[in-house]
Amino acid sequence: MPSEEELLSAAIQCQHSGDLANAIEFYRHVLMLNPQQADARNNLGNVYRAMGNTQQAEQAYRQAIALRPDFSEAFCNLGLVLQDQQQFESAEQAYLRSIELRPDLAATYHNLGMLYQGLQQTELAVNAYGTAIQRGLSHPDTYHWYGKTLMELGKVEQAKFAFKKAVELRPEYVEALTNLGNAHIELGEFGLGIEAYQRAIKLSPELYDAYHNLGNAYVATGRPEEALDAFEIAVKLSPDAAASLSMLVHLQQECCQWDGSFEACTRVLELVEKSHSANAAQAINPMLFFGLSIPTTAEQQLRCSKNWVQQMCVPPVSAIGESALRNRTIPQAGSLRHKDHRIRVGYMSADFREHPVSILIAELFEEHDRERFEVYVYSTGHDDGSAIRQRIVIGCNYFRNVASASIVELAEQISADGIDILVDLQGHTQSARTKVLAMRPAPIQVNYLGFPGTMGAEFIDYALVDDYVVPPEQQRFFMERLMYLPGCFMVNDSRREISLIPTSRTAYGLPEKAFVFCAFHSNYKLTPEMFQAWMRILQAVPESVLWLRAGNPTATANLIHRGESMGVSRSRLIFAEAVSMPEHLARHRCADIFLDTYPYNQHSTASDALRMGLPLVTLSGTTFASRVAGSLLRAIGLSELITNSLAEYESLAVSLATQPDRITAVRQKLESQLATSDLYDGRAFARKIEEAFDKMLAERRHDRSLGMV
Questions:
Q1: Tell me, what's the pLDDT at 675?
Q2: Which pLDDT value is given to residue 271?
Q3: CATH code for 506-680?
Q4: Which residues contact 677 (CB under 8 A, 6 or more apart)?
Q5: Mean pLDDT within 573-590
Q6: Do the domains 506-680 and 322-484 match in fold?
Q7: Which CATH architecture has domain 322-484?
Q8: Which residue from 33, 434, 526, 618 has the highest number of Cβ atoms inside 10 Å of its Cβ?
Q9: Mean pLDDT, rounded, for 408-420
Q10: How far apart are CA 120 and CA 304, in angstroms?
Q11: Is the pTM of this model over 0.90?
Q12: Contact criterion met (CB below 8 Å) for 83 and 110
């Protein structure tokens, strides 16, 4: 009869070769000979776990531990099988006991990291993976998961090196290659990111994630045609991946490639209606959704934002503790918790650079009442060295360059600064740090300016709006409490630099005597219906041209082709190349009427046109994004230029263009209103927003007095 050692050797051999049934039989024979054989019981548990028999596996591990109470490996394996059964607290205790018995057992730290990561306790997961590596575990999976948790915390540079190590250890590791590409892209290393995605695709031609991320990389590098190709493949690989489908629609709009886009938009709407899925690929970036080339409702936008937040903005667990932050003392007038009795307001954005958000808001920081308010700015984006960034640095009390800070580090910084009101200027736009807000670093958190709609998040308390962009009856479509600013919600800067160099139509390729319609829009905001309306307007005004912002070459060619198919010669479409902002403002004087887009209005672009005395015709809808230009017109006293249907829009544009006295009167009225309106007065706006902040504080104190959080 074989000896115990021979039977154990045979069991192990069968186990390694995948012959699990015979491995069980050999282990049973071993235990018949020696019931005290703890190693055999531990190994038997491993076989049962491999076969999916978790209860038998747990029993075997517990028997091994009963025989040998200091059996560290058995505790580690018990943790795994308890984790399989979603007994997370017991699994954690088993892992910690394993570590206590044998601190050098690196695999236990890896397993503990997997547990914490599954529980979204990201900081603990990072520490566990890091310790596993320090203890000598050089496994590609450990490095890969370590990198993923580092990415979740915003520690992208460290994550990049972890992914690199994973790929070094396993060159065909396509998931690690894809995530390495993600890290490169986050760091602005676009060429290396694209190379990583392409390597992953070469190894796995049907890898959806790699194609999706490659498409995003091409978008970021201004290669829309290649991005279109990547997203088309991604959608073929995963037809229900709303993330790729919405990007495909966005790229089609960016290239003015509208054939088939209606069907794709309709499919995105269908996916939003089913957006209860836990799959992140089903989450649609709300900023893309708002820009669809068919109108979306406020209810659909709310659903899209809520799903995005639920799937993509889960915060890492931090030592700060949400309840501690939520219950912080709220300042009261005359009795503030800060020694200098000032309210601390923080503004957070990745766009403190040459960007519309900074161009609009710089003066507000300078004009805040420093007797009552202390202004903190948290910059999560790169320093472009621009004059506007330097102006913001100088214009606030404290400028925090936190671009390299992790999510937890940034939340802790905001909390440590004692911020009373945190204003997020990013919303769901690119490079948003929504997870920071989800950690509740400030007692009052506000959605403002960067995003034209609800964030769909319970952790955002207020949205700063006006009663035109969001009428009171639309409160039900906002998770935030609406805080109304008088006049227009949009902040503006009275100190914008405007070029003094004389402008002329000939310098920009415009006919001297033509009526010039102007539309300096982003391509994705242009719908085929609106472009067709513009072509009909040109046909109704024979001596007219349309002055458009030059986009990508594909878009330009498509617009020219579309125009010609409607009987409008290419000579009547004139494309404006990029110039400096001061010159761009000045060249508005060469146009006669600004034509707005719908259902996504022009926002800062519309503000620029009106500032320069250029009348604007808009079509207002029912959503925030479709009512911004109307809000600006109302604030400047030109509500008569707001229309409510496409037919009315066309009629008004044609009427103004063909009745010289009427357009002259509108221009004169606009000029007069600009002289008296506070729309472009940053100091006046500062008083308005400060009054809103006071109301927020008062409401918060009232809620607390009633026992409400």
A1: 95
A2: 85
A3: 3.40.50.2000
A4: 635, 636, 637
A5: 97
A6: yes
A7: 3-Layer(aba) Sandwich (3.40)
A8: 618
A9: 95
A10: 23
A11: no
A12: no
